[in-house]
Amino acid sequence: MSVVLLGLGRYVEEIVEVVSAIADVVLVERDEARLRAFLEKAPVANLRALPGSATDVGLWKEVDLEAVEAVISFLSVEATLDVARLLRKALGYRGKIVHVSKARPDPQAVRELDLEVVSIPEILGAILRNLLQGQGIVRYPVGIGLRKGEVVEVLITESSPAVYARLRELRQPGARVALVYREGNPLLPRADFRVQPGDRLLVVGDPRGVEIFVGAVIRGEPSFPRRFGSVGALCRVEGEEALYLKERLRVRDWVEACEDPKGVAELGVFLARDRDWVRRVFQEGYPFPSFHLRGTHPYRSILVSANTEALSPLLASAMDLARIFGGEVHVLFVSRVEAFMPPEEKEFLENLKLLVERARKTSGLEVHLIRKEGNPVRETLRLLKGKFNLLALGYTPGRRTAFFRPYVPQLLAQASPVSTLLVPEVNLER
To answer: In angstroms, rounded to a whole number, what is the distance separating the alpha carbons of residues 352 and 303?
Structure first.
């Protein structure tokens, strides 16, 4: 096997050292004096020098193309394309042709001639992002994908906001964890996979989605409501509280005077005021979060009901809001009298304690667990009076209260005296 190098570019000496360790090297250079100087400076046993032009058919008669694994060109873009046409169309060469340069050839010519392009600035950019932005935590693989940030490797440390979280708690639209390396072993992740310190996550997806994922996992940056969608909507609502949310929630656009949230593309959240919208949320089964305004901003103290559904995305959203609004989070669980608690409820309570403790340690926020005994609706409403600014509830789209089947999230949302956030349990892996 041999590799042909075209031209004495800036990096040829290093390339020769690397390639000659695994293959014979043929070096083509039209400047004979420069070629002799190079050979005197860097003698290599399995290096063969061919003086002449790479566009000369006669030169290639001295090369056994069937044994050539790759042709690597350090020539100009134009010269590389000429050589590629000669090799592909006149000589029938089917091996790899690689162009190394800071300039990129015409994309159509690259496809037609089956060229591989190595851009030095792009490689250096990826390496510098590893060193500077990643700080030893985020790695941008070189030579994989389009090199636009659609593939990254994330190292989870003890201080990461994601440590001990389940993957379903970390979900973002447009990004997914494709593989996890733990102690050198590759693992195929599932939604309930729990992340541990030292894990390396291979994240793939849309560059923007991957960027949001990395920001949330490494730096704890708020991703609400972007994990659901990039657009916000105002449904027959205005005033100070709506302006308060518009100024602080990071969305790409706001749709004014929205009458039907389901008709808004990429919707991440909508704001509404009258209580009829609560009924519509549960009746229509909206798969995106909604704020129901009661004029209790600023949101300095957020109460999260653990007696409602979608607890993982609900708590993640509440933590994001605490960062955005500068508040604190209280998680309320109303259980039966301890003597009558079934085993599954006791297990849930213990897991909830661990979840709240982890959230407090990894976020640096004030996160507290409150436990009450009795009726979840009555105890929650009693606690809300005068102490909290925002109630956060989780729900499953499609479920709603009925005469013989009361649904706690809907009952609380309808009766809440404070502004309420409704967060659905939905699959964000799209």
So the answer is: 15
